[in-house]
Amino acid sequence: MPDSALLRLRGVTKRFPGVIALSGVDFSVRAGEVHALLGENGAGKSTLIKVLTGVHPPDAGEFVLDGRPISARSPKEAEAAGISTVYQEVNLIPGLSVAENIALGRQPGRFGFVDWRAVRRHAREALARLEIECDVDAELGSLSVALQQMVAIARALDLRARLLILDEPTASLDEKEVAELFSVMRRLRGEGLGLIFVTHFLDQVYAISDRITVLRNGQLVGEYVTAELPRLKLVGHMLGREVHDEAGRVDVTPVAREAAAPLLEARGLARRGAVHPLDLTLRRGEVTGLAGLLGSGRTETARLLFGIDAADAGEIRVRGDRVSLGAPRDAVRLGLAFCSEDRKIEGILPNLSVRENLILALQAKRGVWRTLARAEQDKLCEHYIAALRIKTPGPETPIRNLSGGNQQKVLLARWLATQPELIILDEPTRGIDVGAKAEIEQLVAKLRADGLAVLLISSEIEEIVRNCSRVLVMRERRLEAEVAADNLTTGRLMRAMAGGHRE
Amino acid sequence: MSRSFTRSPVFWPAVGLIALVVLNTAVNPAFLKITLLDGHLFGTPIDILTQGSRTMLLALGMTLVIATGGVDLSVGSVVAIAGAVCALMLQGGHSLALTIVAALAVGGAAGAVNGTLVARIGIQPIVATLILMVAGRGVAQLLAGGQVLIVKHAGFGYLANGFFLTLPVAPLLVGGLFVVTQLVVRRTAIGLFLEAVGDNETASRFAGLAAARVKILAYVFCGACAGLAGVLWAANVGAADANRSGENAELDAIFAVVVGGTALTGGRFVLAGSLLGAVLIQTLTISMYNLGISPAVAPVPKALLIVGVSLLQSDRLRRWLAGLWTRGGKGTA
Q: Which of A251, A319, A324, A332 lies closest to A284, judged by CA?
């Protein structure tokens, strides 16, 4: 019964320079349902939401809300049409009161004077609708993140709102807070609103949603009734692999891993809100995969191993000695290296040259006074530019002028120059072209052959299967399973990633 | 003129300086005249260098702080504190060398406080250094007992107004410090670390840099420069005035750095540019005396100069101007 749809999108297409972010996507939400919108990174979820809320103009597509065609050209117009959005980061102002936040930008009043009584009354009504008890005069920043989220929802929910979009609202909430959010969502569903719920947590999808739409690489994979879709199938749809597919099996050269001494061992390593206690061992000459869906705690684990975040519990041993990692500096000195998934924020120094970016970690490891002579620096650059086939006009070019793949190679070179014994690669091939991707995979194989321990984190299940001799699988911030080389198939991995035994 | 030269960060401040000199020479043809009198060099350019040496010194330290993405508003107050310390030490009969060491130590300590507030506690640089900017004057007053302390010490005055081999001492001293600093930051990895932290602090930390330590070092150096500037200030007038020494000096220093091509957002820094910027500001101050502009309105031309040079350094404005040029060129062709 397609006509019961509250929102119906047809053939939505959005191109960005060089990428097709959405191609001919259909999507519909009914009144009185929670509709989960799922997909891995780059699937097009956020683009779809941004097109729907008028942040990006679509290149093609038909938008119908409540039987009327809409064409929002700005978030304000979308709101007027009845579409309200709560973004992942609560974008309210912590220094203002709850009431001020709810009223911001649409204060009732006359002649430029704000009617503060009306502001407070409006805020109380908005919160009452969600059955939230909260002092409207309290400073927003003094509230818990969950309560701030509720205020964000109260603000988003205009009286005319017909559709509420929640973009990863649970990313920073604990279990009790998630339950509170869900009860608010159920109430709104009961009022006949349509809710779009974007999340990475499959348990939550099954706990609250009525239907699911899966996107992959900018295309619609399908629309499903939640109760009829087994978890494993869902993960298969998200990753684009069939579950019973055993063809992904590869022969990984068996490494004499019992013989190889463990380079790094973690026991009971944990951090509240990031990872539950986990044990892991990384050996020389072995590529260990760390798999899991987004938000499963992969990056958080890497950050603990590299001393970026402090662990609350557990211990790390490097070459058998217990170490305390207070900062990345300590890890670098121990021969560890970490190539972050976020190149822009955690990787490159955009305005400095390729040379400076390349030698930074080595120079930091040596300290200020043991300066690398310029001739040595140039030699290192020459070597790595040739060895990794980095395309750059020269070593003195600012790194921001390079393509993503070449920036990534410079960052790899930065770490290889320190001659590490363990290198952690977090999504090393994300957002780079196919050629560079293959080269980076070859490099991983070479590093393993050279006797390095490699921890490879990737969302691409094939990449993990192709490159790893052993895979650790994380799910919902827990280390869930370990799959050894002889059992390594995409099917097994996906089953472990999906978890839950409700198939 | 080669393209690489016009793109150099010191190009626009150099253009500004030349324009000012041309203007002054037009009004007063003797502007550039330097004479040898009693074995000393005299003339307006010498005055500019001597009187500008304090701003140069402050700009030197400020450059490194700004390179880390910070700013130090407290240098003017540190000048006053260091001046008071100098006066007290010399009045107490201590040697000149010990006095200078004490001033440097006081300045360095002030910088360490600023650096710790910024790098370890995470207070925004403007706020963190504003604390000492305000409190520092009070400290100086306390030290001086609320009085202007008069210093009579021949060697002390020589530092600010003396001559060495016909050349003025203060600019020689500051110029030498510039050369030494330039060599140290560029020959060791300090320069790279400062620019890395200023360009992307998170990435620098992730690459194994002790980012907090690098920042603190920059503030300590900046404080020590301010301490030495305090010595020159007190030596110049032969007195330590807790209220007036180093008044608004932090602003001149920041202007000199920014005009000299180091962006307030941090990252790349140009020491030579800061030196040139300080000379430019001092030339402007002296020009206004020469042109008979009342000191009351003096800030206005200064502001105009800064806006002008800053605009010229903006890529966007330069592209826009270049666009006008090519369009005009096509019209006539």
A: A319
Same domain, A329 and A401: no
- Complex ipTM, two decimals? 0.84
Domain range for residue B239?
44-312
Same domain, residue pair A49 and A165? yes
SS3 label, residue A293 = coil
Distance (Å, whole) CA A360 – CA A367? 10
Mark which of A239, A259, A289 sits at the end of a domain: A239
Q: Under an 8 Å CB criterion, which residues of B touch A?
A: 187-190, 192-193, 195-196, 199-200, 202-210, 267-268
Q: Comparing C-alpha atoms, which of B231, B204, B184, B218 is closest to residue B63? A: B218
Measured between beta carbons, the chain B residues lying within 8 angstroms of A351 are 199, 267-268
Is residue B25 assigned to a domain?
no
Q: Find the domain containing A57 and state its range.
A: 2-239
In a domain, B16, yes or no: no
CB pairs under 8 A between A and B: 81
B187 pLDDT more than 50: yes
Structure tokens at A429: 């091939």
Domain assignment of residue A444, yes or no:
yes
Query: Taking a C-beta distance cutoff of 8 angstroms, is the pair A318, A264 a contact?
Result: yes
Structural domain contains residue A343: no
pLDDT digits (tens, 9 = 90+) for B25-75: 888 888 888 888 877 888 888 889 998 999 999 999 999 999 999 999 999
Query: Which residues in chain A touch residue B207, judged by CB atoms under 8 angstroms apart?
Result: 328, 332, 360-361, 364, 414
Q: What is the mean pLDDT of each run of 10 residues along chain A (503 residues)?
A: 74 83 91 90 83 88 86 81 79 83 73 78 84 83 79 79 85 74 89 89 87 90 91 82 48 50 90 88 91 84 93 91 91 94 89 95 91 93 92 90 86 94 90 74 89 89 85 88 80 79 41
**A260 lies in the same domain as A314:** yes
Number of domains in chain A: 3
Token pair recorded at residue A401: 């002028």
Tell me, what DSSP letter sits at residue A399? G
Residue A183 domain-assigned (yes or no)? yes
pTM: 0.73
